[in-house]
Description:
Blueprint: H1 4-8, H2 12-15, H3 17-32, H4 45-51, E1 78-81, H5 87-98, E2 104-106, H6 130-134, E3 136-137, H7 151-161, E4 165-169, H8 179-189, E5 192-196, H9 201-205, E6 218-222, E7 233-238, H10 242-250, H11 254-276, E8 290-293, H12 302-311, E9 316-319, E10 332-335, E11 342-345, H13 347-351, H14 356-363
Parallel strand pairs: 2-3, 2-4, 4-5, 5-6
Antiparallel strand pairs: 1-7, 6-7, 8-11, 9-10
Amino acid sequence: MESVAEWGLTPLSAVDPEIHDLIEHEKRRQSHGIELIASENFTSFAVIEALGSALTDKTSAAPAPSPPSAFRLDPARWGVNVQPYSGSPANFAAYTALLNPHDRIMGLDLPSGGHLTHGYYTSGGKKISATSIYFESLPYKVSSVTGHIDYDKLEEKALDFRPKLIIRGGSAYPRDWDYARFRSIADKCGALLLCDMAHISGLVAAQEAANPFEFCDVVTTTTHKSLRGLRSSMIFFRKGIAALAVASKQATSPGFKAYAKQVKANAVALGNYLMSKGYKLVTDGTENHLVLWDLRPLGLTRNKVEKLCDLCNITVNKNAVFGDSSALAPGGVRIGTNVIFCGMCTPAMTSRGLIEKDFEQIAE
């Protein structure tokens, strides 16, 4: 058996001269050349020293640490996974955590400056990466005139396509990003928002680029580009997303079944009481959690109903019913969660313990 001195202390030049020569050649190339590849950078001696330390011998399966201080994140709100080895696996890990196979995604088109992992496929429909194979992808693009992202077209596409995830990020987009607009678009179509800031994470840390953490649900990054670290990656996640898993688990409990039945019963009671008073409900009733109250036969405007309800500390919102001449001027209001009539939603109040007789009183 070899001694430790034989196998453990022999230098690379003796163990593998070919690899040693490649490293020396790369050192000379880096020191004598001008490095203009946007995805590359020079790391520090301290980082190289840490990478070659005794920690290399350690297998770590520890829980995620607190987010790096460079990004000034609240550990109570943000968690981080530092296990992915590079950006592409980090992105795919995030996708598989948030999505099911064949869920819909939208990312910046590769010719517009996007990245292969954001769902790219060729104009002929050839799927290039695992992202486009496992998920249904529709790219958004930059303006052919300005080269900037066309946010209006993005919103139009998103509202039509209804993706479950919108990906903000690119590998060849030279402008900053309007995260507030992305957040607005994602909210309108019910999507999660993921930022791949691999290229600009160093700028974000230095506050020289817009901060995605204020608006995004998940943020991924490599650590070796503008951040000047080792070749690795990180996945930042809002801790509130974990609440989705908790809520899903709670929905499997027997108590949740009873709650859902009461929600429907309350909606039926509310609808029946309104109809008994002569009011018109869309579809003449309900089979789920809401009733749709068509206000047009009453000649009431949505603004008047909203103001009257506000005086009673009841919050409603406008929406359209089938047959309206314009969705911009809806003929009704939504109470709780639906459209141009009164859409009255029962789950929230059912969660507070109300039953049928209580909803009859609400209707009155």
